[in-house]
Amino acid sequence: MKQMEKILMKGNEALAEGALSAGCKAFFGYPITPSSEIAEYMARKFPLLGGTFVQAESELAAISMVYGGASTGARVMTASSGPGISLKSEGISFLAEAELPCLIVNISRGGPGLGGIQPAQSDYFQATRGGGHGDYNIMVLAPSSVQEMLDFAMEGFDLADQYRIPVMVMAEGTLGQMMEPITPRAKVTQFQAKPWATDGCKGRQPNVVNTLHLSPEFLEYRNKVLQEKYKLIKANEQKAETYRTEDADLVVVAFGLMSRIVRKAVMTAREQGYKVGLIRPVTLWPFPVDAVREAAAQAKLFLSVEISMGQMVEDVRLAVEGRVPVEFYGRIGMIPSPEEIGRQIIQLAQREGL
Amino acid sequence: MGKVVIFAGGFGSGKSEIALNQALLLARDFEDVILADLDLVNPYFASRDVRPILEDAGIRLVAPSGELSFGDVPSIPGEIIGLLRQENIMVIDVAGDEVGSAVLGYLSKYILARQGYEFFLVLNPYRPFAQEVQSVRDLRMQLEKAANLEFTGIVSNPNLLGETTADIVRRGHQQVADMAMSLSLPVANLTVTKEFYPEMAAKFGGQVREINLYLKPQWL
What we know:
Chain A folds into two domains: 7-188 and 210-236, Thiamin diphosphate (ThDP)-binding fold, Pyr/PP domains (Rossmann fold); 240-351, 3-Layer(aba) Sandwich (Rossmann fold), CATH 3.40.50.920. In chain A, 53% of the residues are buried. Chain A is 42% helix and 19% strand. By secondary structure, chain A is α/β, with parallel strands linked by helices. In chain A, α6 links the parallel β6 and β7. In chain A, the strands form three sheets. In chain A, strands 3-2-4-5-7-6-12 form a seven-stranded mixed sheet, sandwiched between helices. Chain A is globular. In chain A, α1 (11-21) packs parallel to α6 (146-163). By secondary structure, chain B is of the alpha/beta class. Chain B has a single domain, classed as 3-Layer(aba) Sandwich (Rossmann fold). Chain B has seven helices and eight strands, in the order βαβαβαβαβαβαβαβ. Chain B has helices at residues 15-29, 51-56, 80-84, 97-112, 133-147, 166-183, 197-204; strands spanning 4-9, 33-38, 60-62, 89-94, 117-123, 153-156, 187-193, 208-211. In chain B, α4 (97-112) crosses α5 (133-147). Chain B is globular, with a radius of gyration of 16 Å. The termini of chain B are far apart. The interface between A and B is medium-sized, with 31 and 29 residues.
């Protein structure tokens, strides 16, 4: 039967489909709500497409398999939710130092501890500050729609190969579970050469992928190499969407699905005559410092809205460098409605006489 | 003991919305309508989110309760077997795929002991894995095996949510009708939202049911 143009997908399915379109050859994971549909989709599709699906015995095993798979130069991935990402953090540190490109997905739920399985954004620190040990960063993309789940999975693999860095796609549980119509994209057929891969050394010196550096000088050298790369990524890859920030007195910052809800609240506040704008960070690392700084030049107040107890707000404060006050509003375990956000915005605007 | 109407299908085929609408429709004509939300796989977009709407209509909701209603553990509401043995009309909504229908296997002997049951396979041909006859055939087999019940019909639910057009409905429904033919199952209903009801009712007659989307978040 002929494939229809648009297809109705859950966010988790779209992400998996995007990974397959990007040429992902293997998935290693351990199921956890609300991310499990990614693994299920891969398990159904790989036998037809000729890839490898492994449900590992643990998260630690899964991320180590990602290390092995990525070393061969193949596009490989894993997916989990907060508690599982915590377990994988040791391996992510290894992947970062070994400069192995891969896709890591966090369909987030509320913590700390086992927490709940309702949507959250409270893994922001874990994602953007490294999470594991050592001086490293990974790139973090935050989709806001089911279509972007697919698009960012594809873009994530490209960025991972380009910079030899693990890339994380992080989305609230609701975005993984909800459905929207999406347009599938053509399969990627051109890939970057990976001369560093351990893919057989007939006729050349063997490649080695290793993260143990006992010589203090070499360890420091490796750290400098990574920092140079991170500097380049910060300069080139910051991405944000802005909405009516040009003349905004109050700039709201929100990412992911939350940014769509905030956008509705901003529209309502505008209709009531308040000069409000929105910055939606698309990359959480690198944080879009430039977009925030630009808006801070004329804004009188910032408000960070998150499904957490206040994490990204620290990056907003670092970016505005004390020029403007930065307020915070957050919930956890539930998604605030546009009306609830709207009341916060208007209350703040009135308090500050904006 | 009255009838039982059960909706099963793939993940995201529209089962929960259709079960909710069916319960509300039955509650117009009957007392003792029960909606059993047996989505034990995960609690996102489940009937228990709209408990007040059901209570206003006089429908008794049987669902994982207390903090389990936010969980993903297989907690079967304790009263379900007792209720299946009493006089009432019951609509059952299960989670997707064979893992979702497994709970029916456990309940099947009580379901089979009632006056009659209707067991519907909900199909939206715009969902992944519902586009080819073979995968729908596999799904049917897996669900019937897990549920230990045989399907009595198909509910055709062709849509792309907010991007649905009359053409999307017509083409999708045709596809479902073709699949139904090769599965030798009757199409019991075509479900459409309000804006498409008049046109589809004129074209397809009494099998068309208007449904309201209760579980879609207001902010989408």
